[in-house]
């Protein structure tokens, strides 16, 4: 008769062990909890605070559920008080409704404050002048244009550490989501729209970037390399791209925009206004049967 009792405790022990292993053993691989910039750092703190507040309700409820099931189980010799007509307790009602309401209120205030503080298009406070990088989501690759430096890259983005980066994001493909987990949350890339996202890296390093929306066959290959460098190394990299890479022409862009995965590529120049052309061909024209050449002619006239 003692064997089932022992087995129950062994099952509980193994369950707790499994939970500990899955929640602590993989912690080093959760990159959103290892921020390298001010935005990601604040977002991590918000997640941790929200988790702790939720646990103030969830953990006691789980323990009380297990305790009640164990304490009031049907067994011989039970001394539990039998009250079949009990239906109300003001004290208990206040506890299990009042505490969650207070927690939800606190969580609401924190969330509203963080929402306004972390508004994506809000410039970051810094003594450094922001660098602008235009991002275009393609099937299944990312095109980065540096309007101030006059270069472009595919599946690779570099910028100086400590310098705010103003990402202007659009799509010339199905909607996707631009995401560098260690620097900040994701931002949707949508055709006909130019979204703004400010990010910054505290230190030099290599980070992982990815599309966070499922967009078809080669979605899994739609990731990009992110590197934060010193200002001198960034300028040297720009000079190297200008000196050794080919130009990106409109014909090249049309080929690049076709659905296919791509390796890292660099370009020493790109057509002026290419990003704006990509946005406006969906935003103002809605592609009303117009060809690429028709769109180019209209853009030139404007």
Question: Brief overview, please?
Answer:
This protein is of the alpha+beta class and 302 residues long.
Question: Helices, strands, pairings?
Answer:
Layout lengths: L1 H23 L13 H34 L18 H28 L13 E8 L2 E6 L4 E4 L1 E5 L4 E7 L4 E4 L7 E3 L5 E5 L5 E7 L11 E7 L1 H14 L5 H7 L8 E3 L6 H10 L8 H10 L1
Parallel strand pairs: 1-5, 4-10
Antiparallel strand pairs: 1-2, 2-3, 3-11, 5-8, 6-7, 6-9, 9-10
Work out the strand percent. Answer: 15-25%
Task: Give the uncertain stretches in residue-range form.
Answer: 285-292, 298-302
Radius of gyration: 27 Å
**What is the domain tally?**
2
What is the CATH superfamily of the largest domain? Cupredoxins -  blue copper proteins
What class would the helix/strand composition place it in?
A: alpha+beta
Spatial order of strands in the largest sheet? 8-5-1-2-3-11
On the 0-100 scale, what is the average pLDDT?
85
Biggest sheet, open or closed, and with what strands and sense?
Answer: 6 strands, mixed
Helix share, percent: 40-55%
CATH topology of the largest domain: Immunoglobulin-like
The number of helical runs is 7
Globally, the shape reads elongated
Q: How many angstroms does the end-to-end distance come to?
A: 88 Å
Task: Report the top-level CATH class of the largest domain.
Answer: Mainly Beta
Counting DSSP E segments of at least 2 residues, the number of strands comes to 11
> What is the succession of H and E elements?
HHHEEEEEEEEEEHHEHH
CATH architecture descriptor name of the largest domain: Sandwich
């Amino acid at each position: 008769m003692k064997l089932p009792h022992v087995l129950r405790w062994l099952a509980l022990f193994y369950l707790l062990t499994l939970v500990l292993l899955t929640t602590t053993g993989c912690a080093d691989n959760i990159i959103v909890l290892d921020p390298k910039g001010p935005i990601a750092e604040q977002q991590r703190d918000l997640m941790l605070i929200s988790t702790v507040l939720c646990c103030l309700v969830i953990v006691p409820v789980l323990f009380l559920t297990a305790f009640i099931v164990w304490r009031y189980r049907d067994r011989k010799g039970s001394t539990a008080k039998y009250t079949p007509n009990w239906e109300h307790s003001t004290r208990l009602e206040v506890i299990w409704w009042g505490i969650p309401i207070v927690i939800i209120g606190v969580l609401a205030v924190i969330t509203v404050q963080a929402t306004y503080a972390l508004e994506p298009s809000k410039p970051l406070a810094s003594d450094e002048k922001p660098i602008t990088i235009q991002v275009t989501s393609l099937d299944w690759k990312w095109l980065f244009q540096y309007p101030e430096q006059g270069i472009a890259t595919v599946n690779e983005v570099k910028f100086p550490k400590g310098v705010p980066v103003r990402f202007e994001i659009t799509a010339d493909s199905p909607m996707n989501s631009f995401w560098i987990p260690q620097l900040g949350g994701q931002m949707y890339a949508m055709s006909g729209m130019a979204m703004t996202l400010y990010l910054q890296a505290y230190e030099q390093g290599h980070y992982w970037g990815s599309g966070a929306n499922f967009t078809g066959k080669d979605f899994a290959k739609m990731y990009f390399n992110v590197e934060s460098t010193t200002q001198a190394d960034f300028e040297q990299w720009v000079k190297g791209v200008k000196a050794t890479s080919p130009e990106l022409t409109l014909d090249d862009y049309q080929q690049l925009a076709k659905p296919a995965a791509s390796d890292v590529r660099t370009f020493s120049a790109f057509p002026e206004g290419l990003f704006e052309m990509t946005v406006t061909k969906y935003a103002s024209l809605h592609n009303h049967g117009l060809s690429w050449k028709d769109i180019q002619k209209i853009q030139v006239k404007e």
